[in-house]
From TrEMBL:
UniProt KW Metal-binding keyword: yes
One term of GO molecular function: peptidase activity
A Pfam match: Peptidase_M20
GO annotation (BP), single: proteolysis
Keyword ATP-binding (UniProt): no
InterPro entries linked: Cyt/Met_Dipeptidase (IPR051458), Peptidase_M20 (IPR002933)
Organism the protein comes from: Ditylum brightwellii
Top-level taxonomic group: Eukaryota
Name used for this protein in its record: Peptidase M20 dimerisation domain-containing protein
UniProt cross-references to Gene3D superfamilies, sorted A to Z: 3.30.70.360, Zn peptidases (3.40.630.10)
Keywords: Hydrolase, Metal-binding, Protease
Length: 269
């Protein structure tokens, strides 16, 4: 199957006591669980301890276009969401198999695209390779300066300036969290590849996931790998997960300054 699927992603399949299918955990399964909760109360003849309103939307991966406008409209007086006190979003995971958990906050997101252009048209690598600057080479070099491979450290000056210092109280909270590193490696299928994680202990790993910003490089587009041409231009895409006190505008400023400084070093301007 394509994309690593062992079965049809749109046919729910049970394998090794697990259900596999598109959205089984993100996000059709969790969304349906609310209906099952209501059904269980009805079958048992037990009243729900609160009123529940369900709002289904399935376009997260496309940016949930129109969703925020709909919530704003439905929150007006006498509208469907007007008297709602809390929102619960079914879009996260348990840390393991033993202890249920509620997620009360997530990191923010700043998404970036950077384009490198070195020619007005694609060039022939057999004729011009080794004599001109190549957009793809410059892009790979540029993206490699953003984050330290092997540690995940973000290599952008000023990016950590507003990140709060970890307190002793926070460390104590992480100590008691039910989380198993070996199970985590197995579930993420890291164990089948390198058996290695960026962090070696529970507290450091969980803080890396939740407490500190992280930078992920998502890909390079605009170049046709099936040809042996030198691409005239290409675009790299990456994002930074933000934590409290980080200002997206300030993050944009320091990222832009970093890219401009590093790109000047390749001298292809």
């Amino acid at each position: 199957m394509d994309d690593g699927w062992l079965s049809d992603p749109f046919v729910l399949t049970e394998r090794d006591e697990k259900l596999f299918g598109r959205g089984s955990t993100d996000d059709k399964g969790p969304a349906l669980s609310w209906l099952w909760v209501v059904e269980a109360h009805q079958k048992l003849g037990v009243d729900l301890p609160m009123n529940i309103k369900l709002l289904y939307e399935g376009m997260e991966e496309s940016g949930s276009e129109g969703m925020f406008e709909a919530i704003a409209q439905l929150s007006k007086p006498s509208e469907f969401l007007n008297d709602v006190d809390f929102f619960c979003i079914s879009d996260n995971y348990w840390l393991g198999k033993n202890t249920p958990c509620l997620t009360y906050g997530l990191r923010g997101l700043a998404f970036f695209e950077v384009t490198v252009k070195c020619a007005e048209q694609d060039l022939h690598s057999g004729v011009l390779g080794g004599s001109v600057h190549e957009a793809m080479n410059d892009m790979v070099k540029l993206l490699s300066t953003l984050v330290e491979s092997g540690t995940g450290k973000i290599c952008i000056d000023g990016i950590m300036d507003d990140v709060r210092t970890v307190t002793k109280e926070e460390e104590d909270l992480y100590t008691d969290i039910d989380f198993d590193l070996e199970e985590f490696k197995h579930e993420t299928r890291v164990k089948t590849v390198s058996d290695s994680l960026l962090k070696k202990d529970k507290m450091s790993l969980l803080m890396g996931r939740w407490r500190f910003p992280s930078l992920s490089i998502h890909g390079i587009v605009g170049a046709d790998a099936s040809k042996t041409c030198i691409s005239a231009q290409c675009t790299g895409k990456f994002s930074i997960r933000l934590v409290p006190d980080q200002d997206p505008e300030k993050v944009k400023k320091v990222v832009t300054a970093h890219l401009e400084k590093e790109f000047a070093k390749v001298r292809s301007l």
